[in-house]
Amino acid sequence: MGIKIYQRYITFIFLKNFFIIFASLQFFYLGLDLMQHLKKLPDSANLQILYSLYTFLNAINYTLPVSILFAMIVSKFYLIKNNELIAMYASGVSKNRLIKPIFFSSLVIVILYVGLNFTNFAYSKDYAHNILTKSTLATTYNNLFLKYFDKYIYMKKLNPLKKEATGVKIFDLNGSDLRSITNAKSAKFQQDYWVLNDVKVTYKPSVIKKDAKLSLKSYKQHKDLKGYKPKIIENLYEGKSSFSIMDAIEAINLFLTQSVNIVKIKATLFKMTIFPFFAPLLSLILFYYMPVSIRFFNLALVSSVFVFISLVSWAILFMLVKMSMNSVLSPEIGIILPIVLLAFFALYLYRKNR
Q: Could you state, in order of their start, the residue ranges of all structural domains in the chain?
């Protein structure tokens, strides 16, 4: 059997099983969610469709790694059951060569998933929650008061989805000394800046003298608050930990020098970029411990054991992620360390079976 032929064959079996399991788990998750929240859904058919879509997308965060693990288990036991695994070993194909198509296929799937988290896919859960609780895709926030470096910002109304705000006031301080007050009727976030419209800026003299006066300047438009994205403002105000990868990186850079706790943001970033790789690594490890033949084993029992091990491993790692996001553990210990340990153990098994 040629190398390319068996690699294609194993890849085909794995991907077929993956998509079947993935689709089944996705629709199962969606069905359970709809049954649970059926009475709370808005009357609008459009909102019901959008809620189903965002719930379906949010389910990927939970079903994708499990689908990869289950697909590997089903694929290997399919080869065992049909005595194809023995035939491949007899023809000189090693364990490492057999696992490579599955490992690299799962790796590509995870990389695509990480790429999705650069987009608004990362906010699917928020969108679904807004539709369910407020019958709207985006929540409008009133009377926000926030800090940005040496500035305090008040927004009478903020629409994060449209990236618009009204009734904006910016208090610029130098320590405890007020330097200026900026008033704007409206503002829109464009090209990494808040563009303020109909702006009036009141400047206080730096040195108070008898003849000192406040100076007032008016602008049709004025740029300020670089990098202070509406989604970052919303998450800080709500205390949420949902970010896209780019928003998380920008938020960390933005608040690194300020007295803002960035542990949750770091944990969210690691969850989206590092944590998903446990699935290919764990599938590699489990592959080496699975039997070669069913002659001395009960196939149903052994497969159930490996499914149970997969679910328990996923649950433990997911629990560590949640503990990191709740600041019980540091993200480096709760997320990065377990994945690094899995990677080293997988590498050890790979080298051992060369």
A: 3-119+268-352, 139-232
